[in-house]
Amino acid sequence: MSAKLNIVSSAVWIKRGVAKAKPEKVKLDHEELRQLIDNGEVHETSDDEHMESETEQNPVAPSRGLRGSLSNLAASTDNQEDKYKMDCYDNEEVADRDGLRGIACFANNKDDPYMTNVVDSDDESDAGDLELKETDNLVAALKCEDDESALVCYLYNHDDKDWYVHHHYDLPSPALHVESVRYDPGSDDRRGNLAAVGSLDGDITIWDLDILDLPEPCYTLGTPKSESAGKKKKKAKNWSGQTAVLSLAWNEQMPHVLASGGADSQLLLWDLEKCVLSTSVGCCKEMLQSIAWHPTEKSVLLAGSMSGTLSVVDCVTMNGEIRASWDFGKKAEVNKVKWDTFNNTCAYVACEDGYIRYVDSRVTGKEVYSVKAYDDKAVESMALNCMVKDLFVTVGEHNLSIWKNDPTGCTLAHSEDLDLGTLHTVEFCPDIPNVLVVGGELNGLIKPIDISLFSGVQKVFQ
């Protein structure tokens, strides 16, 4: 009998103020949820059905988004330049919306005539644990325990030292990456608290973290809305959806754009306004384990591959343009990439050969420096602190290391072995600079750590 899989593969913090203070709870079985989602589709006349048939035959026709909305951002598939409206997105007017006004409207719109089974969290006996305080953070983590996979939301409160499971969603298969998406094209202010999950079976599912006990995702990218709630799935054109999704990156400057990298060696850009695949960026032909949008250049993406290459890709055109590239060798499989938010022409790279590499996007093919972080083991992941300059951390087999960057290298401030087994993910809290979360394979699989308690960190970052 094979050993059961136990792992936290990915985790992401939810910034304070993003999640609703009182999450909604829906008492629906699978069939009720499917019927409710189907009600968001317009099937009132045969003309509508005819139009849907034409849409399937003609990929240029507008399709419904996450919330039944229509997007005016679609471009002709023949238009090769600025396909994603990157230059004019900020000035676009959003099209009028009909149907469901936001994923959360399934649960939190008490005036909706369909919603007869909605209950407030404060009507439940555990209302005190579910309601979020202003000082609470959530951590969304992909957890597989005894071969059961779930998207688990933990509550963390630094002042009260609280850390517990707030709610969770069952997943049909293990997943490798979770990404916070603070965007809701159907809400009035376009803000949301969604999570995109990239799975081993090739699906990218969208979950609303403000709705508890959802039995299914709100949407599966690449699947028509009428079929996303459990019917046979149709995948987007030119996307098989049969290989693992290895990486995801939400574009905060263009919130309708989500990028994904997969084992099928495709870099894909998704339009969240319409919930459709925009294109496969033609210049990338490798399995991308980590991708990251540039913090200020909205069309520029950093992409690290399993074959040890790193590319700076400008996605402003359909095929994309590689601005700079590096080849670290096949043994230097890229596990994680991060732009330096304090020097955004540069980036950190965590590699399978145990090295941390620091590169300047203006100097293609050459590293600023490389430092051996671990002997005979990989740098599994890394995280950059966006509030403390030059502070970053790496994780490897059992080990957490804390570093300070400088122009010629980096200084090790603290290193210790944890009791979580091999570590796979690490992320800094966006609201508390000295707190991070680490996920591994043993003893609860995930926990928060206050690095300010380490004397070495105090000394180096005094």
CATH class of the largest domain: Mainly Beta
- Our Rg estimate from Cα atoms comes to 22 Å
| Helical residue percent band | under 10%
Largest sheet: 4 strands, antiparallel
Strand content: 35-45%
The largest beta-sheet arranges its strands as: 1-4-5-6
Number of alpha- plus pi-helical segments: 5
What name does CATH use for the topology of the largest domain?
Methylamine Dehydrogenase, Chain H
The name of the CATH architecture of the largest domain is: 7 Propeller
Number of strands: 30
How far apart are the first and last residues' alpha carbons, in Å? 52 Å
Number of spatially distinct domains: 3
| CATH homolog superfamily of the largest domain | YVTN repeat-like/Quinoprotein amine dehydrogenase
Shape: globular
Keywords: Phosphoprotein, Repeat, WD repeat
InterPro entries: PWP1 (IPR044285), WD40/YVTN_repeat-like_dom_sf (IPR015943), WD40_repeat_CS (IPR019775), WD40_repeat_dom_sf (IPR036322), WD40_rpt (IPR001680)
GO biological process, one term: rRNA processing
Protein name: WD_REPEATS_REGION domain-containing protein
Task: Give an account of the 3D structure.
With 462 residues, the protein is mainly beta. The protein folds into three domains: 1-28 and 127-224 and 239-270, YVTN repeat-like/Quinoprotein amine dehydrogenase (Methylamine Dehydrogenase, Chain H, 7 Propeller), CATH 2.130.10; 283-377, Beta Barrel (Thrombin, subunit H); 380-461. Helices cover 8% and strands 40% of the residues. The protein is built from five helices and 30 strands. It has a four-stranded antiparallel β-sheet with strand order 1-4-5-6, with no helix packed on it. A hairpin with a 6-residue loop joins strand 18 (309-314) and strand 19. Mean pLDDT is 82; it is low at 40-65, 67-81, 88-116 and 229-238.
